Amino acid sequence: MPTTEPDRVPGRRGARFAVVDPATGETFDKAPDQQPDELDAVVDRSHRAWHDWRADPAARTTALRGAADAVETAGDELARLLTREQGKPLTESYAEIARTAARLRYFTDLAPRTRRITDGRPVHSEVHWRPLGPVAAIVPWNFPLQLAAAKFAPALAAGNTVVLKPSPFTPLATRLLGSVLATALPEDVLTVVTGREPLGTRLASHPRIRHVTFTGSVPTGRAVARAAGASLARVTLELGGNDAAVLLDDIDVDRIADRLFWAAFRNCGQVCMAVKRVYAPARLHAEVVEALAQRAKSVAVGPGLDPDTRLGPVNNAPQLTRVEQITEQALADGARAAAGGQRLDGPGYFFAPTILTDVPPDSPVVTEEQFGPVLPVLPYRSLDEAIDAANGTGFGLGGSVWGTDLDRAEAVADRLECGTAWINHHAELSLAQPFAGIKNSGVGVAGGPWGLYGNLRPFVVHRPREE
């Protein structure tokens, strides 16, 4: 549970670090700053717990269903704490907790299938599936609970144990979630550790960790992969995106404007698969800019605990600085803010919802992932030009095409270089589908049966045919 004990000496056992409410910019609690050398005992306990956890699938099913029930029972407490440390509106926190429980139930009901190989030899060959061992789940601050569940639910259902490390910006709701899950799971099956670097690096490189699953930035993902390589652990990396929305020339701007706006601005734009660039036909460009700008100017921005809020603050000071800098650079490059363009006055990490036009295509706000409430809208003359631009970054997580002719839109979507393409919507995922990026957007697959098998290894048994 969260605590308000004062800081102790940094770098020693018992040290704590501040957790800031992004709506005020002030510290409201502290979390344990666990040290890298404390991980050995945690991972050792996780390894010991693995032997019993993997051995009884029926007991796992019962425990995981109980865990999902426990999450829902604690929903009010979890949601308020999540909003307090992350900043998102309370309604979005409730949705995140519901998704957390749903993931547990979904993966609990999946089971790997034994497969018989028939290849003409005088033996029976069967492929069975075995869990990997302790899994390290390293989670970012934008969806702390939902992304944690996306990692621990398939890992636990497959028979692995999990050591879960949240971002230092959002440790408290994850610690509370760990306490809630502990009421249903056996001891040491899931352990939450909190702390600042090099805790994450030590966890990723620990010799008893057999799978490292990470969501975060490309540079940190590369560092995690290097650390995991020391013990040849499996890695699953989801490293963000710079998703493009390509609007076709037959769109009805008024009809799609709300969906398009929220595809970009949900969770204050802090979504890896949010729309981060819009390409509009030149003749419709001004209309698209105006429709999005009207929504940006009218949306209610404020603390997530305020029931009228639709858009909360940026989560942390470094990210707010990043959003400010990338916007200022675009404006200096010649862009114009049709809405927003600056930090809001007052306490907290609030940035005005921003729609940019006249943006040079090589501006960092276009070529990089801004991860905040800023959206550039760029015109195009030909569809080939738009597709080339959409594919022209190092990212490849998602993309979308918007138009009235669905067959034509699907043909365009098929040309996007990304892991998931949507038509007339964006960033909507089923628990049953695979989620993966290409290029710098990641390695491995999460979601659906693919996510379950990513936490298993094949084990082949050969036996002679009956004579």
Automatic annotation (TrEMBL):
Pfam families recorded: Aldedh
Protein name: Aldehyde dehydrogenase family protein
Region: Disordered, residue numbers: 1-36
The keyword Oxidoreductase belongs to this UniProt entry's keyword annotation: yes
Superkingdom, natural source: Bacteria
Alphabetical keyword list: Oxidoreductase
Organism of origin: Streptomyces graminearus
Gene3D superfamilies registered for this protein in UniProt: Aldehyde Dehydrogenase, Chain A, domain 1, Aldehyde Dehydrogenase, Chain A, domain 2
Family membership noted in the UniProt record: Belongs to the aldehyde dehydrogenase family.
Catalytic residues (positions): 238
